[in-house]
Amino acid sequence: MKKLNRQTVPDIPIKPVRIVQFGEGNFLRGFVDWMVDILNEQTDFDGDIQIVQPLKEGMGDLINEQDGLYHVLLEGLEKGKKIQRTRLITTVRGVLNPYEDYDVFLKLAENPDLQFIISNTTEAGISFDENDETVNAIMHTSFPAKLTALLYRRYQHFNGCSSAGLSIIPCELIEKNGDKLKEYVLKYVEFWTLSESFRHWIVEEIIFFNSLVDRIVPGFPRDSIDTVQRSLSFKDELVVKAEPFHLWVIEGPSNIKEKLPFSDAGLNVIVTNDLSPYRTRKVRILNGAHTAMVPIAYLHGFKEVREAVEDEKIGLFIKEVIFDEIIPTLDMPKTELESYAHEVLERFRNPFIKHKLMDISLNSVSKFKVRVLPSLLDYIVKYEKAPPKLVIALAYLLRFYKGKFKSNNIELRDDSQVIEFFRAIWKETDLERITTKILSNKALWDVDLKNHTNLKQALTTELMRISKQ
């Protein structure tokens, strides 16, 4: 079987590098790079991506061995039908490791064709490190410090010319990711006592976009790679498996649509002046349904998302949670919300992805606080009663955190203080007292919930029902 590289796949055109991408992981390669590859095919974008490895150890050597080539394997459901599609990605020039040659990395800033910087350095990647003491350091540790140094080199090389400005689109899963990244870049400008003119150039010529990404990317299909490679007729060690669904919401000036004409390529990219409704929609419907599902599905004997959603009773429960109790609390067009919800349920039923409930259960209490509790409280405000299905979900969450069910231990994955609190609370036998103590724990919920009388009563009743079962 031929090894995948530019010798075995000849005649791949070399395009100008228009994008520098911090991050070589599965998500960016199965999401952004896949999109840009389609953009090159369907429009006149005509741009390659130069990847920068954000950490000292990474996948750079392996990607470079294949000359940046790899396949994206899409597997899932589209309108109820199973689909399996592969695409050879040819738009990645390769990976540069700044830890091996920092000046070569900085020279990327001197490229006149460069227009965009995209990143996914994990949520912890956008941070400020005081150990990055000067712009002239041999090596910077944090991503924002590397970015500031790169921008400073560009500013110097092009003499602060406005035409050298860039659009920066971070994909890290934190709220207001573009604003936060800009904040840290400007903080380094001050920390390094760089010129006011450079600061002005960043403020005026560098556009930081907030963005929201949505696609499940399991990554390398280890279980089926032999079959996949035979179908490709190539030995590809970088295959990225992803679901068909994709959504990228970008918040900022609308002229980004002219620079990155995703809509012309038929891609699901939304440019808006406010992405908060889309973030709320994703967090409440997709993530909220996941979090609400886990305890009740697990305690009913299910191990994976798909089998739970396909079960007659649990599947109906999840659907009713979304359509009857989450969607009514959201301030977006109902048809748009319901369309997204149907897509979410179809994604949950993806037969090619084994999404284990226990994997999703990590930090379930804090996830419930962020993803589900706002829907529950908004429902109470709107309808002056507790939402019955979300109360059931909360009751099963609390019962799940007892850590034992039908003589079987549950491997709780959460902060030790949270686990210890529930271990102590479940030594009680009075369910009303248990409910009151849990709801009044502001460390769990950030608010005292015991004053919501209808919630307290409904939750106590549900816990009693579960205990009888």
Q: Can you describe what's shown?
A:
There is one protein chain. The strands form 5 sheets. Strands 6-3-2-7-8-9 form a 6-stranded parallel beta sheet. A 3-stranded mixed beta sheet has the order 5-4-12. A 3-stranded mixed beta sheet has the order 10-13-14. The chain has 469 residues and is an alpha/beta fold. The protein contains 21 helices and 16 strands. Helix 19 (431-439) packs across helix 21 (453-468). The protein has 2 domains: 2-272, 3-Layer(aba) Sandwich (Rossmann fold), CATH 3.40.50; 276-468, Orthogonal Bundle (N-(1-d-carboxylethyl)-l-norvaline Dehydrogenase, domain 2), CATH 1.10.1040. The model has no long low-confidence stretch (mean pLDDT 95). Strand 4 (70-78) and strand 5 form a beta hairpin.
Task: Provide a brief overview of the structure.
The protein has helices at 26-30, 32-42, 60-65, 102-106, 143-157, 177-191, 196-205, 225-232, 256-259, 276-299, 305-310, 312-326, 334-348, 357-360, 364-371, 373-383, 388-400, 416-425, 431-439, 442-445, 453-468, and strands at residues 2-3, 17-22, 48-52, 70-78, 81-89, 92-96, 116-119, 167-170, 207-208, 210-214, 234-235, 240-242, 247-251, 269-272, 404-405, 408-409. With 469 residues, the chain is α/β, with parallel strands linked by helices.
